[in-house]
């Protein structure tokens, strides 16, 4: 039996305690906590509960709390945590469906495909992604267009690549979608808006950047100002906007993910790169936590066994640390090779994944 003073110390030293004190909504779903004096357990962000640290006990989820003979709080319903988690997974899975559909699906069609009420789905989508499904689809369309304009010889060719039919109608639409005419876009404009902020995680400073489509950079380092410089170099044309107080919750969520990659990031990623880089990065995302591949094995996975150097180059060019787990690639002899964010961070990540 630990004495109350010791227990209070243990609780205060636990990073989950600060989430409870701050009623951190980004911690929701990551754990629950019980109050031994009342026998009730709550979500980290429960609005009703004030608990003394000596009386708080953390549990991984509601079933662990119930095994410890705790009852769910009637205010925050922590036993329904998994329903929220399932809905968020549904929303993330919905994003590519919206993007690849030839027409933006109607609200009702989207809701019907998920079995969630239309109103609820849209509210949750907006809360989680930051945009309504239709706005999200439009943003995607704009991205396709920008990429086509960057890569095509002529504007007409770009219109075809981006899937627009007659170019007369397109020109009006594209101007609306791009916020400028296609030709001024090609002359060097770019209205991509990227929010960013720097926070803390177990690996040091973390910069998280998000475009209208999702997380586009997770950068790790010791020094916030060099992280910002790195961001500017990677997105020279974009309009970089410091994140507001709401955005800090996104940063906290991503930092929580970096501290525990097995929980999954559960946020859409805006992955930019050449077709080859994207193939490499997709293959990286298939390596589960705790496992590693060599560069040669990775090259085989993407059916380019001779492209080992190019594969290593694509790993080094990755802008989204941990979510695109380039740290899970090692030398053929198992030794650690370089890591964009420092070999010590790579070692720490691999060790914590192996122990998890
Ligand atoms: Zn509660």
Provide the β-strand percentage band: 5-15%
**Mean pLDDT, as a whole number?**
84
In what order do the strands lie side by side in the largest sheet? 3-1-2-4
DSSP strand count: 10
Number of helices: 16
Rg value: 23 Å
Whole-Å distance between the termini? Answer: 27 Å
Shape: globular
Largest sheet: 4 strands, mixed
Q: What ions, cofactors and ligands are bound?
A: zinc ion
**Helicity level:** 40-55%
The string of secondary-structure elements, in order, is HHEEEHEHHHHHHHEEEHEHHEHHEH
Q: Strand pairing plus helix content: what structural class?
A: alpha/beta
Which ranges are low-confidence, i.e. pLDDT below 50, for 5 or more consecutive residues?
A: none
List descriptors.
356 residues, single chain, alpha/beta, binds zinc ion, 4-stranded mixed β-sheet, 16 helices
Model description:
Helices cover 49% and strands 13% of the residues. The protein has 356 residues and is an alpha/beta fold. The strands form three sheets. A four-stranded mixed beta sheet has the order 3-1-2-4. A four-stranded mixed beta sheet has the order 7-6-5-8. Strand 1 (32-35) and strand 2 form a beta hairpin. 33% of the residues are buried. It binds zinc ion. Zinc ion binds at residues 42, 46, 48-49, 73, 75-76.
């Amino acid at each position: 039996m630990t004495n109350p003073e010791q227990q209070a110390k243990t609780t205060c030293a636990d990073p989950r305690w600060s989430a409870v004190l701050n009623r951190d909504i980004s911690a929701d779903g990551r754990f629950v906590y019980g109050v031994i004096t009342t026998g009730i357990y709550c979500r980290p962000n429960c609005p009703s509960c004030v608990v003394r640290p000596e009386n708080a006990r953390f549990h991984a989820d509601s079933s662990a709390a119930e095994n410890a003979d705790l009852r769910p709080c009637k205010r925050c319903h922590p036993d329904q945590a998994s329903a929220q988690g399932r809905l968020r997974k549904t929303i993330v899975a919905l994003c590519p469906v919206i993007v690849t559909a030839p027409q933006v699906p109607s609200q009702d069609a989207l809701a019907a495909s998920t079995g969630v009420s239309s109103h609820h789905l849209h509210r949750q989508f907006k809360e989680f992604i930051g945009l309504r499904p239709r706005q999200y689809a439009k943003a995607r369309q704009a991205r396709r267009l920008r990429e086509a304009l960057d890569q095509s010889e002529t504007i007409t060719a770009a219109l075809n690549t981006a899937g627009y039919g007659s170019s007369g109608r397109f020109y009006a639409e594209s101007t609306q979608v791009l916020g400028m005419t296609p030709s001024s876009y090609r002359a060097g404009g770019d209205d991509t808006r990227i929010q960013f902020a720097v926070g803390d995680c177990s690996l040091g400073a973390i910069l998280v950047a998000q475009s209208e489509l999702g997380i586009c950079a997770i950068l790790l380092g010791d020094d916030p100002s060099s992280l910002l410089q790195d961001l500017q170099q990677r997105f020279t044309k974009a309009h970089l906007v410091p994140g507001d107080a709401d955005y800090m919750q996104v940063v906290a969520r991503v930092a929580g993910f970096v501290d525990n990659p097995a929980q999954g990031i559960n946020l859409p990623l805006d992955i930019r790169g050449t077709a080859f880089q994207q193939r490499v990065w997709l293959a990286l995302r298939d390596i589960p936590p705790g496992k590693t591949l060599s560069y040669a094995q990775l090259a085989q996975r993407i059916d380019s066994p001779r492209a080992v150097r190019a594969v290593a180059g694509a790993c080094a060019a990755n802008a989204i640390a941990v979510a695109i787990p380039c740290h899970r690639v090692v030398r053929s002899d198992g030794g650690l090779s370089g890591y964009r964010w420092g070999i010590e961070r790579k070692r720490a990540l691999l060790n914590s994944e192996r122990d998890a």
